[in-house]
Design brief:
Number of helices: 1
Number of strands: 0
Oligomer: single chain
Strand content: under 5%
Structural class: mainly alpha
Shape: rod-shaped
Radius of gyration: 21 Å
């Protein structure tokens, strides 16, 4: 494989890893936001009692 081929393969692996990381990060942020919303609802319901 030529140098250009290795360079392209390296960039492809980097961007695939970056995309995967960002997707995982987005899922974790969504789960965290759901937990915050649940806590806020629990606090609101507790204050009403």
């Amino acid at each position: 494989m030529s140098e250009v081929g290795f360079l392209f393969a390296g960039f492809a692996v980097f961007w695939a890893g970056m995309f995967t990381y960002l997707v995982i990060l987005q899922v974790r942020i969504r789960n965290l936001q759901n937990q915050v919303d649940m806590l806020e609802n629990t606090i609101e319901n507790h204050d009403e009692i």
